[in-house]
C-alpha cells in the first residue's frame, strides 16, 4: 500500500511539473499585439481546426490604418497568414483540395496572394515555428484559392473553417478581400 501511495505521489508531482513547464513554454511563445483564435468545424465526421494570430488593419503602435493586400502583405510572396506563431491546420482525416490530398495530421498554413494571378494556400509539413520561415522544400502542397471582394471591410484577419454540406472550405478574410479553399474529407 505504501508503495502504491508513493507511486501516486510521484506521478502527481511529475504531472504538476510537466503541466507547469508546458504552461510556461506556451506563455513565452506568445506575446505579440494580436489576439489568437481557434476555429473548427466537423466536416463529414472529421474535425478540421485552424489556430492563428489575428492582426488588425490598424498599426498597433501608431493607430494608422494600413493597406493590407499589396501593402503590409506583398503580392506574389509567401505570407505567414496571421501573426505570432505560425498558423496551424489540424485534420483528423485526409482532406482533398481538388486533386491534392493532404493526409490527416498537423501542418503550417501560409498564403501566397496574387493581385491578378492565381493565389495559393501553402500547406507545410514543418510545424511549431514562430511566424513562418518559408522553406518550400517542406511544402506538402500549394493549392489554388479563389479570391473575391468582401461586401464590407474586415478590420481583423478572420479565418473560418466552414461546413458546406458534406464538404468544407477554409475562408480567409481581411480588409476588402476573401480567399476561399474548398475541400472534401477523404475516408
Question: How would you describe this structure to a colleague?
Answer:
With 187 residues, this protein is mostly beta strands. The chain folds into two domains: 1-30; 33-186, no CATH class. Helix content is 15%, strand content 47%. The protein has one helix and nine strands, in the order αβββββββββ. Strands 1-2-3-6-7-8-9-4-5 form a nine-stranded antiparallel beta sheet, with no helix packed on it. The protein is globular, with a radius of gyration of 19 Å. It starts with a helix and ends with a strand. 27% of the residues are buried.
Terminal CA distance: 48 Å
- Percentage of residues in helical conformation: 10-25%
* Gross morphology: globular
State the helix count: 1
Strand content: over 45%
Q: How do the helices and strands follow one another from N- to C-terminus?
A: HEEEEEEEEE
Determine the structural class based on helices, strands and strand pairing.
Answer: mainly beta
How many domains is the backbone divided into?
2
Rg, alpha carbons: 19 Å
Sheet of most strands: 9 strands, antiparallel
Number of beta strands: 9
Low-confidence stretches: 4-29
Amino acid at each position: 500500500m505504501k508503495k502504491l501511495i508513493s507511486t501516486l505521489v510521484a506521478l502527481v508531482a511529475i504531472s504538476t511539473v510537466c503541466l507547469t513547464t508546458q504552461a510556461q513554454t506556451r506563455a513565452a511563445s506568445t506575446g505579440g499585439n494580436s489576439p489568437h483564435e481557434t476555429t473548427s468545424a466537423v466536416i463529414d465526421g472529421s474535425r478540421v481546426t485552424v489556430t492563428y494570430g489575428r492582426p488588425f488593419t490598424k498599426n498597433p503602435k501608431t493607430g494608422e490604418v494600413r493597406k493590407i493586400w499589396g501593402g503590409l502583405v506583398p503580392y506574389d510572396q509567401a505570407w505567414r497568414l496571421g501573426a505570432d506563431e505560425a498558423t496551424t491546420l489540424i485534420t483528423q482525416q485526409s482532406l482533398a483540395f481538388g486533386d491534392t490530398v493532404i493526409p490527416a495530421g498537423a501542418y503550417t498554413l501560409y498564403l501566397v496572394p496574387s493581385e491578378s494571378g492565381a493565389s495559393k494556400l501553402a500547406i507545410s509539413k514543418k510545424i511549431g515555428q514562430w511566424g513562418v520561415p518559408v522553406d518550400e522544400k517542406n511544402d506538402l502542397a500549394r493549392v489554388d484559392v479563389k479570391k473575391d471582394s468582401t461586401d464590407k471591410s474586415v478590420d481583423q484577419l478572420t479565418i473560418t473553417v466552414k461546413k458546406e454540406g458534406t464538404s468544407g472550405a477554409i475562408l480567409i478574410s481581411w480588409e476588402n478581400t476573401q480567399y476561399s479553399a474548398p475541400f472534401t474529407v477523404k475516408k
